[in-house]
């Protein structure tokens, strides 16, 4: 724990001193100034030994068990710039783990290593506008083998960080006739520069199209060709790989949300204590404000214990895959539980700030609008609740069909 | 009622056919295209006899009682462009009413008439960054009489629609030594071009600084001089005028929110019925979605009855001032009640849209972020709840101090 | 309206002076003292011209349109003794309306007239323990014609007021083979003294088995025989009659709940204003208590307007049956909306009372436990929400199956 | 942990096999049958080595650290009979801990030892009807030294388990003139048989006066005399002792509530899975029911982790007193957090049961009504929220007065 505490101290100091001052650029959408500034901070983070904190030591990471990494991720989550600064931002962090587990030598060289070094970024193409994301077996994008190449046709959106990415991990149907609906899709590594990859638009999310790693794109694949050896993992294994990738992704989101909650909580307390209703009578004297502070404290602390307990179960399993599998249902539970806490805490903190809360003078309004998606991405609340309920019923001997 | 129904039909058709198609420009922040397009629509609205619907017939308005106007305002509220298209947008609508009641001949000529014709816009400068808006007697902006001019010094923000406005109705302390704390401030008509009026910035609201009538500014008054005759109403009467102005403003917001709610409700139902989870099985088959639809229907209908009942009480009073006074507490009640309904309905409609709900492809995300302020502007929920509680206790013979 | 106001004054005075003082007997379960006392009050109510307020004047009632009766019912609802005191308690009020519409001459003489005079009470046997009440077409109780008698076999529960009732309106399957599932059941008038009618038990509801009109029974029909002419309405018409009976029943509950809400609200305000935290500092100075008062005020007022608007629609229809049909969906909406308001208001009022709120020294604890059923009886919230959602979708051209 | 698991297995088996079958007697208020049956079970519990599980081994208890005891308490809490069966029911458990820490030799002999053996019961007299329980320094009961006796005058209520208790630990003002308001009261051991101790009534709680250990009384002290040596702890130390006693009491309630939650959760799942809406279609197929199951699972698990984390902090402190002090604020947080979870879980479980949920055929209705007090006793939610908020503000350097 001593080691962890030291890492946390460094992360917190770095976040506070180096990243928080840059937030205004993100909030103002000034990416021309932000992107070079972040490049510099990424260099500093590497020098500080904070690079790739999510990875094992033998891949240059901090080698922390998942529950300890959770504390680091929370500390990074206090600013929207935290994870990118140390190279563990979504979707690259998930892609790195996927490639570490499934890439062959050539794929490591071409795709994984630049990510590990931070020389390139990547994206992940799964969701399609035509289909509800909650049912992953319904997918229209196809890839067919034509000689020594895969030819892809399809339509994706919410492809996070496509803008400026070197490649996209694309989920496509390769075996439409497989009996098992879960064995029809595969994952393919598609360079964004490949012919036939069309960038339709950066999606206007809450009034903000963003740029670079902070953006979400709509893309079309129109006969895009990639070498046959760009298949990642086994043919027909796309669904299993996606599962393997999304479980950890969800717990990573929960950890990050705790950081947002704590930052919002601090802002709420500080504003309450310093904004005066009348001389000598700050907002914090109002019982309603006190109620919001207390409820937020309790909800955040309960949420953290719940997330770390889940992480510990995964960390203590015989393997990560086993751990993820064993904790699958609890991961669904924390996903909707923590997303709910996040939304309530942000709402209260914003209300305490009054008009100021609506402005981009604090990150509250940014999180209020962008993290509304926390209840949607990686499976909406409703899907995760169904997962938990069915498991509880199943454990009591009751098998409930949809 | 026949007359009202005919007006409503015209308003609805105009909104649907002419304004909804322009929404994308607002959502994309493309004001260069939007502003001239809106000028054209304003001309059409005038030709259709929909101009100044909030005003008495002898001032060129529709001459509707307040509860009937409420229906019109709801119909306009279905798009963020509705009220501006017919010249009853905030803050101009409130300023027109204020000037109609209190402007002298010269002030009518110079300030009111251009507003009535739609040749100019105005703004209202009350809130100051240094003081909580919930306590209107604490204010730092001053105006002192220097010869035949008022000289203003101060700092205002959330001055809606300053950008491009011809003048600002500024609330300033003119009589700091008056015994009655409510008799220290006055209202002054300040041309935005006057020397000493500094536009600090358009406030970045939820990532969006806006433009023209859709913007909020921070301004400084640094020895700004205006003619002595620009005093609006009696000296020391600022607080009374503000009260007179804000009551109707609140009910106008409630009416508009009902329109937002109904539009969001329609979008929710349509998306639920057409978005398929699997072939032939739309989202609307999910019980959770049905629950959201039902709860929204009930809450919106109850809210509308509550708002219209309040409007009817005002309309049936012997005078508007009497009506507003008699309904003051109920106006506070609908302010927080309807704002709550608005937020819940928008949240549900957005969730039903999934990822699409986060995009500016519908107006839901726009309203979700910008109307978060509904629980803050014109008095936060907490202040209005206090007003209602104290009145209920007072009516039972219990006088509760703060 | 003058007439209504006079009636309301009389009802309020009667409730306050004559019924509230008897509440303690009900709360203590002292039915030996309560029942004779209530008989006396029922006599007084008749003398005051308050008898059968729900009925048309030509049947000895007050002849009020439904929305005006709503105000009377609210006034009666301020005490759990109100409706019984004037003979419009459930289930008798509904049974009277059913018999007025469908009883033949003999049935009127034998069954209806004693109810109208208050000489007898009745009950209604529909719900069965083996089947979810939310699906009325699934029912096991049968009645077969054997010569000139119906022979009934079955099992019912939540048969309100069976204890001491003269007869029960029993819903039973008479035509199990009818193609239309809604045409299989009929209604039968079954004297409680008939052989084969077995009273299993008074149900222990929230620790309280009650007595007389305030009780709910489980009964068995074991070859119970009643004359063939005890069929009420057409054979196979049971479902239609039940629908006709339950719609008004639901709006009657809503009206009564408003009375409970207002009483609880008064108790909450009075306790808040008089219970001191310290000398001179009553509970009502706490902002949280003020918030509860304000939210309750708004919710109750919105609920009342919603209920009365529904009643007005029914009253203004060409016939009651038409009115009920036209308002069916809105009745579902107010059922769950007002039940929700009721539960929240009672919860807040109880919390303001602290320990005292848990005691039977006020009626709050009684209502808290017994009116928890408001979200269950006459269709649980979940069923009514489904009704509303499907209608909204249908009105937009989307037909959603279960 | 092996030891703990074995204890838990025994406790669970004992609860399920021996206590659950007796619940019906409690729910029916049949104390004549229940009390002797419970005496028998208490003997069995002792034989099974489950007696006094909250106490250190050297006092005949299980000697478990507080977090491990938490698991035992949860297992006992699955039935309202659990804690009494093993002699760790409130208020005796708290009184034992108080006497263990502060009783002298004579007091141990006369008062503590019979409690440890289970030969006598006790009660705790603090709350007074005239004063809000949330302000413990305002108290009217007095004790004055008259020769070798204390003479007590006062009025107490919510004196749990007075009925049949051997003695009451009474909080009374002994030093009204002490400068420090927290040093005016003392604790006195008052035999219930002492002259001047008047039992006014068993309080009618939610329709139920109860009996024996399951009852709450109102009492008057009218010149009651007890020997001078019946002073417990130092004179003027009443407030400190009360603090010392109430902190652990609160966490004990939280642990017990988790047991209620899990039992309610099991009942909800089982009912959902077996109650059919139509043949082959159980309630559990409804998405709303699944949502309730999932939300309950998440809330209960988060609550448990929060409670056990608090218990662990106390257990790991250098002393219990230190531990309690260090965890005081977190104890306040879990008190309102878990009480909220409890109320929501019970409400959902009851709703899933429909009409059956209102009956005493399951313990749900019992808990629904009696555990409504969870948000009131040992400090209402509002007080605990204030404690948490002020500490959070204080930790950031902001001292907020009331």
Molecular structure report:
4 copies of one chain form a homotetramer. With 402 residues, chain A is α+β, with helices and mostly antiparallel strands. Chain A folds into 3 domains: 2-88, Butyryl-Coa Dehydrogenase, subunit A, domain 1 (Orthogonal Bundle); 122-235, Butyryl-CoA Dehydrogenase, subunit A, domain 2 (Beta Barrel), CATH 2.40.110; 239-395, Butyryl-CoA Dehydrogenase, subunit A, domain 3 (Up-down Bundle), CATH 1.20.140.10. Helix content of chain A is 51%, strand content 15%. The first copy, chain A, contains 14 helices and 10 strands. Chain A has helices spanning 2-19, 23-27, 31-47, 66-77, 82-85, 92-102, 105-117, 238-274, 287-315, 320-326, 328-353, 355-358, 364-370, 381-395, and strands spanning 122-125, 142-146, 149-160, 167-173, 185-191, 197-202, 216-227, 231-232, 276-278, 281-282. A 4-stranded mixed β-sheet of chain A has the order 1-4-5-8, covered by helices on one side. A 4-stranded antiparallel β-sheet of chain A has the order 2-3-7-6, with no helix packed on it. The longest helix of chain A is centred in the middle third of the chain and has 37 residues, at 238-274. Chain A is globular, with a radius of gyration of 22 Å. The N and C termini of chain A lie far apart (45 Å). Chains in contact: A-B, A-C, A-D, B-C, B-D, C-D. At the B-C interface, helix 8, helix 9, helix 11 and helix 14 of B face helix 8, helix 9, helix 10 and helix 13 of C.
Could you provide a short overview of the structure?
Four copies of one chain form a homotetramer. Chain A is α+β, with helices and mostly antiparallel strands and 402 residues long.
């Amino acid at each position: 724990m001593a080691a962890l505490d030291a890492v946390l101290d460094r992360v917190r100091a770095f976040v506070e001193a180096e990243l928080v001052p840059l937030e205004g650029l993100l909030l103002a959408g000034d990416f021309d100034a932000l992107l070079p500034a972040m490049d510099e901070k990424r260099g500093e983070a590497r020098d500080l030994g904070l690079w790739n904190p999510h990875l094992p030591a033998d891949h240059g990471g901090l080698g922390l068990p998942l529950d300890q990494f959770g504390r680091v991720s929370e500390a990074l989550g206090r600013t929207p710039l935290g994870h990118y600064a140390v190279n563990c931002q979504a979707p690259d962090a998930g892609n790195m783990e996927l490639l570490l587990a499934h890439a062959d030598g050539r794929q490591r060289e071409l795709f994984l290593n630049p990510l590990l070094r931070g020389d390139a970024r990547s994206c992940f193409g799964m969701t399609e506008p035509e289909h509800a994301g909650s049912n992953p077996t319904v997918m229209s994008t196809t890839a067919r083998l034509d000689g020594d190449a895969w030819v892809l046709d399809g339509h994706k959106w919410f492809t996070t960080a496509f803008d400026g990415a070197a490649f996209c991990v694309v989920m496509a149907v390769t075996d439409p006739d497989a009996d098992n609906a879960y064995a029809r899709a595969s994952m393919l590594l598609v360079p964004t520069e490949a012919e036939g990859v069309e960038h339709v638009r950066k999606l206007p999310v809450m009034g903000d199209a963003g740029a670079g790693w902070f953006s979400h794109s709509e893309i079309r694949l129109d006969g895009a060709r990639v070498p046959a050896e760009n298949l990642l993992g086994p043919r027909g294994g796309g669904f299993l790989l996606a599962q393997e990738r999304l479980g950890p992704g969800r717990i990573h989101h929960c950890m990050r949300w705790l950081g947002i909650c704590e930052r919002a909580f601090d802002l709420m307390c500080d504003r309450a204590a310093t904004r005066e209703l009348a001389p000598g009578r700050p907002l914090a004297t109002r019982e309603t404000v006190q109620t919001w502070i207390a409820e937020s404290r309790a909800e955040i602390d309960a949420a953290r214990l719940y997330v770390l307990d889940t992480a510990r179960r995964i960390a203590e399993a015989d393997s990560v895959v086993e751990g993820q599998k064993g904790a699958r249902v609890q991961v669904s539970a924390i996903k909707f539980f923590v997303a709910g806490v996040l939304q309530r805490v942000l709402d209260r903190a914003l209300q305490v700030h009054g008009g100021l809360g609506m402005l981009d003078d604090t990150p509250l309004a940014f999180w209020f609008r962008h993290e509304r998606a926390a209840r949607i991405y990686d499976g909406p609340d409703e899907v995760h609740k169904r997962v938990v309920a069915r498991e509880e019923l199943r454990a009591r001997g009751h098998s409930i069909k949809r």
